[in-house]
Amino acid sequence: MKTYSTREAAKLLGVSLMTLHRHVVAKKIAVPPVQNIGGTRFRSWTARDVERVRKQLLRIKDGRRRRK
Predict the structure, then answer these.
(1) Contacts (Cβ under 8 Å, ≥6 apart) of 34
(2) pTM of the predicted model as reported, rounded to 2 decimal places
(3) 2.40.50.140, 3.30.70.270, 1.10.1660.10, 1.20.81.30: CATH of 3-59
(4) Where are the domains of the chain?
(5) Does the pLDDT of residue 67 top 80, yes or no?
(6) What tens digit of pLDDT does each residue of 19-65 get?
(7) Degrees (nearest 5) of the Cα angle 28, 43, 62?
(8) ∠ at Cα 24 (19, 27), nearest 5°?
(9) Does residue 66 register a pLDDT over 80?
(10) What CA–CA distance (Å, rounded) separates 40 from 63?
(11) Residue 18 has pLDDT above 90, yes or no
């Protein structure tokens, strides 16, 4: 099973790494658990995780205000 880094997952989702990180911190999306390997912490995304987040991103409003 192929896994992706958070940077690769953001690229597949069509958002920037910072945007994905902001959604993770705000707990707006469900993310895979953090793994500790060799003292390094990272998330390993599967294709199923990416598709689940893609569906969740469609429901999140962009937060921009529109001028009238």
Answers:
(1) 41, 42, 43
(2) 0.82
(3) 1.10.1660.10
(4) 3-59
(5) no
(6) 999 999 999 999 999 999 899 998 999 999 999 999 999 888 776 77
(7) 25
(8) 125
(9) no
(10) 33
(11) yes
SS3 assignment for 1-68: CCEECHHHHHHHHCCCHHHHHHHHHCCCCCCCCEEEECCEEEECEEHHHHHHHHHHHHHCCCCCCCCC
Nearest to 45 by CA among 27, 29, 26: 29
pLDDT in the model for residue 62:
72
List Cα–Cα distances, 27 to 30, 44, 46, 57, 63, in angstroms. Answer: 7, 17, 19, 12, 16
Nearest-angstrom CA–CA distance, 14 and 54: 9
